[in-house]
Amino acid sequence: MNRYQGRVVAITGAAQGLGLAMATRFAAEGATLALADVNEQTLTDAAGTITDAHDAKLRTDRVDVTDSAQVNAWIDGVTTDLGRIDVLVNNAGILRDNRVEDITDDDWHAVIDVSLTGGFHCARAAFAPMKRQGYGRIVSFSSMSWRGNFGQTNYVAAKAGIVGMTRTLALEGARHGITANAIAPGLIETPMLASMNGPARDKLTNKIPMRHTGRPQDIAEAAAFLASDAASYITGIVLDVDGGISIGSSIR
Length: 252
Ligand SMILES: NC(=O)c1ccc[n+]([C@@H]2O[C@H](COP(=O)([O-])OP(=O)(O)OC[C@H]3O[C@@H](n4cnc5c(N)ncnc54)[C@H](O)[C@@H]3O)[C@@H](O)[C@H]2O)c1
Prior knowledge:
- It contains eight helices and seven strands; from the N terminus they run E-H-E-H-E-H-E-H-E-H-E-H-H-H-E.
- 46% of the residues lie in helices and 15% in strands.
- The structure holds nicotinamide-adenine-dinucleotide.
- Nicotinamide-adenine-dinucleotide (NAD) is lined by residues 12-13, 15-19, 37-39, 63-66, 91-94, 114-115, 118, 141, 143, 185, 187-188, 190-193.
């Protein structure tokens, strides 16, 4: 399939994990990529693996999504250099887990700033060019945790915020051909998940009705669908991609 031929797809946090898997998936379908990450070296290496595998046109930028000036300059650079921005994937996110009484001011702000404010900075910057085009797809990363999760007050607040932001972007974008949707991944095998300790991870895996963690490709498939023309009448939703864990109890 070449669904993304002629489309410009911008992805934050693209150096590894889900961002890299999505970049690879979009490249395989002919997209021109604008990849951003705070970690420049890993991003350069990731871009190399994508261009080795696919004949993709891409640009990479070191962007810290918490800094609105950097985000504005990035989106300006993308639209000037590549002519348009069709898809924005708000993927960058971090964890600083702790029980509520042990979350420091720094842990709170760091998680909110990257995982929520960063997505807002990018959506705000992309909205004007998408409106001018009369076309846009914004896919933002929530998490299965958005409904509440022990030890993640900061992360849950950010990921629930993404849901509210997405629903509002959907309302404001609808008459301009812009859709906004969120993906709520379950436990997916990325460097972020590798940071979780063994017992906590095993306990969670046992709660997944499918009894196994997800692959980054599972998320990339969902993103490639939500950002496609096939999903043009879908907006404001949260798509759970989680092996069923959000359904509830799977005691057997
Ligand atoms: N892996 C999972 O199981 C899982 C589950 C639910 C939700 N998510 C969400 O999916 C998204 C991707 O997760 P992942 O597992 O690939 O994480 P990851 O840690 O493997 O990758 C995150 C990327 O974001 C980049 N990043 C961090 N801070 C940044 C900043 N300020 N500006 C720009 N880039 C920044 C990192 O350098 C890294 O490349 C995140 O929003 C995460 O919360 C992941």
